[in-house]
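Researcher: I'd like a candidate sequence for this fold, 203 residues long. If you have to choose between options at a position, lean toward the conservative one.
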């Protein structure tokens, strides 16, 4: 069901319909609540940039809006982790939450620390759990806020910007939407993979 809803054709159809409020609601849900962990923020941002190149959205409006929304979402998730983390870790698995997701994210955070707040933004599921983990371990709020703002800016500007650039240069870019998103995710996690391979080789 979700796969069909977030296919390239579907995105290009309903994203213009929901407009700015709908886009902000989706990003806030993915960034601020664990139930939104399955939402494809990367695909959405790229589609927004693509549609902006066609005049559907204004980059000067949509980019700042989504940056602020992503920042607010991570503030909410941090608070959830800080005040409800213990309760959450004992909850049984649900369709939107699995203890495995939290455990993997905790390991990712333990290894990469504040860098995980930048890298995690580009990683589906992980990006919804990273701020919760930061709250659970009581990461200093000032440092967290700086990383939150920086990560949101890099995430939104880079993916929306790429969508806008390719949309303005390649008329038939629609058909390559999903492969491009997969490539974005692959490139973003490449440093993590390379570091893991390096550490494994030197054990």
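Model: Candidate sequence:
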């Amino acid at each position: 069901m979700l796969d069909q809803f977030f296919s390239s054709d579907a995105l290009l159809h309903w994203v213009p319909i929901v407009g700015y409020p709908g886009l902000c609601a989706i990003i806030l849900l993915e960034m601020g609540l664990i139930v939104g962990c399955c939402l494809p923020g990367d695909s959405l941002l790229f589609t927004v940039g693509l549609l902006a190149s066609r005049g559907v959205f204004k980059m000067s409006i949509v980019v700042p809006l989504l940056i602020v929304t992503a920042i607010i979402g991570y503030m909410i998730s941090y608070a959830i982790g800080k005040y409800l983390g213990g309760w959450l870790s004992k909850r049984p698995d649900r369709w939107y939450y699995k203890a495995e997701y939290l455990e993997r994210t905790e390991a990712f955070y333990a290894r990469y620390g504040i860098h995980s707040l930048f890298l995690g933004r580009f990683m589906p599921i992980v990006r919804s759990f990273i701020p919760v983990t930061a709250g659970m371990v009581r990461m200093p709020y000032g440092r967290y806020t700086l990383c939150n703002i920086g990560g949101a800016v890099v995430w939104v500007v880079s993916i929306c910007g790429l969508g806008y650039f390719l949309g303005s240069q390649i008329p038939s870019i629609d058909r390559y939407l999903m492969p491009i998103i997969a490539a974005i995710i692959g490139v973003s996690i490449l440093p993590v993979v390379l570091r893991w391979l390096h550490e494994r080789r030197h054990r």
